[in-house]
Amino acid sequence: xxxxxxxxxxxxxxxxxxxxxxxxxxxxxxxxxxxxxxxxxxxxxxxxxxxxxxxxxxxxxxxxxxxxxxxxxxxxxxxxxxxxxxxxxxxxxxxxxxxxxxxxxxxxxxxxxxxxxxxxxxxxxxxxxxxxxxxxxxxxxxxxxxxxxxxxxxxxxxxxxxxxxxxxxxxxxxxxxxxxxxxxxxxxxxxxxxxxxxxxxxxxxxxxxxxxxxxxxxxxxxxxxxxxxxxxxxxxxxxxxxxxxxxxxxxxxxxxxxxxxxxxxxxxxxxxxxxxxxxxxxxxxxxxxxxxxxxxxxxxxxxxxxxxxxxxxxxxxxxxxxxxxxxxxxxxxxxxxxxxxxxxxxxxxxxxxxxxxxxxxxxxxxxxxxxxxxxxxxxxxxxxxxxxxxxx
Length: 392
Hints:
By secondary structure, this protein is an alpha/beta fold. It contains twelve helices and 15 strands. It has helices spanning about 15-30, 50-60, 80-90, 105-110, 130-140, 185-195, 235-240, 260-275, 280-290, 290-320, 340-350, 380-390, and strands at about 35, 100-105, 120-125, 145-150, 165-170, 200-205, 230-235, 245-250, 255, 260, 320-325, 330-335, 355, 355-360, 370-375. Helix 6 (about 185-195) links the parallel strand 5 (about 165-170) and strand 6. Helix 10 (about 290-320) packs parallel to helix 12 (about 380-390).
């Protein structure tokens, strides 16, 4: 028996586990201190009323013989897939219902999609980057190369024609930097993928925060993308489903590699390894797209946007460089005085009891940067920024 020794190439601890340990130790030693957490990107507002009502109704259905449901379709119920289809159509993006796969969240499928690709493929990810992109490919033993994201390019790296990649990860709006690609920039990535016969894995988990109609919310708004891209999205940030778990993956029928339709491969993979998202959860997700649901989740998104503005306004006042905050729930700031991000983390925790995320945890280019999130309460966000202002 042999184990997968690629796991030995991973960091010993997941980034947020290290943060939690540090915060818990500080809290135990300082029980009287009030800690404000602006680190992990978890939502804090409750589910929309329309969603809760739909889930209650679905629970009742499960308690009646005539409406009880057991195993559902692995690719998702048509009632949810059809409203996702209409959601894309409202933004002039036509999809077949068969191209839409309901999942238990973008994070799962971003890793699971790798089942379709040979381990000898070269993977291109930006640095800094959401750790899951790197860790899942490290587990598989793939070669990983990096696209340099930095202050000079606004943390929006563009294709380097000297680099040859087979799988390309793009997240826009980006986690952790909050930076957003425009149409021309994404077109360059699509052209690069088509030229290199590569596949783009496009993470659109934060698309709901884009308020500028000129900025693309889906890779499929770009000409040629259906021939080279797979898109992942989630209800986690759109509608607060972080604890409820539901998302969707789009695999276009036009995406063909070596004469094989990747959509058919993904369908085969899902029917073999996945039993689908619970009916109750899918009914809740369907309600997200109802008239009441859309109105309620917009209020929640605007609430988080306002928190981001509070943070951004404070940084503007202090003359601290940052990206994000406008079309993203994340604010990626440059640590003052060239400070190391873990040192900055310790300073904020010890001096003002505010918790963020050290940029070093997202890659070497994050060494001197720091991520704050807008997912806290407005009261706590204001207090955190008042503390921040006094410190600086």
